Amino acid sequence: MKAIDPRQALLGLAVNEALIQEEALYLHFDGGWTLVVINAFVLKPADMEGMVGACLVGFEGNDRGEKLRFDNDAVLTVDLSDAAYRGPEAIQLVRPDGHSIIWN
Length: 104
Description:
Layout: E1 15-21, E2 24-29, E3 34-37, E4 41-44, H1 48-51, E5 56-62, E6 65-70, E7 75-79, E8 91-94, E9 100-103
Antiparallel strand pairs: 1-2, 2-3, 3-8, 4-7, 5-6, 6-7, 8-9
């Protein structure tokens, strides 16, 4: 049985709130999903207000990082290297039911 990629659930969903709190990036999506990035990240362009309303259109990742692309041409790159780790996890995806999926 092939595992389902949890990022698939975010495709096509719009960001309804974007904020940085205690060095972590919080992207709240329609439908009750929240992506929390604790590791070092780069958002280009670095416009948090411009993220509101943007839909996730693609993603790619490997053991070195995650890259999320939005329909407003923004790209969020998350560093998954040991040097970028801030803990307690690298990325947390909180589902609408409150359960979390963790990247370390």
